[in-house]
Amino acid sequence: MRRQVKMAPLRTSFTKRGPKELTGMVDLTRDKQGRTRARLLDLVPGRSGTVYKDWLTDRQQHRLAEAIAADDRHNEAWVAWQCAQRVRAVYHQPDPATGRALAEQILAGFPSCPIPETARLGKTLKQWRDAFLGYFHTGGANNGGTEAINGLIELHRRIARGFRNRDNYRLRMLLIAGGLDQPPPQV
Questions:
Q1: Distance of alpha carbon 40 from alpha carbon 17, whole angstroms
Q2: Mean of per-residue pLDDT scores for the chain
Q3: HSE-CB of 71 using CA atoms within 13 angstroms
């Protein structure tokens, strides 16, 4: 039985003193029939690779190293994880030129990687080359904030129990998404 732990972002708004984002540590161990039995192991404040690394205590890091060394098949997962971290690192460089250079290296190398998942990622990034590199031409502009608000709206739309009054629905969404600090538009 293999154990796989995945970082799952969970953006949660608590009180002003509480964490704004949590990272969920999820155990994705498969049972004997090959079915994944996801189990939440922990929620820790923050959202970065450092959060995940810090969550792994010395004992857990040692166990992880032993598991990777125990079977050569684990090396592919380890290398694929490292490649994913390189993609994340593109967006955390001190300046756009350094980030773009790293992105260019990824575009040049990943598609020919012998690990299928990494090669597939590389081919996808190559197809989306303009969008991938566009981040560095726009001063880091992206639609992350819009997607986060849309996620909140979609979540609360599902649990709104069928609001039919447009004004009530709009007010509810503004309350949820923190948009009531501006005057409402004149209609």
A1: 24
A2: 78
A3: 8
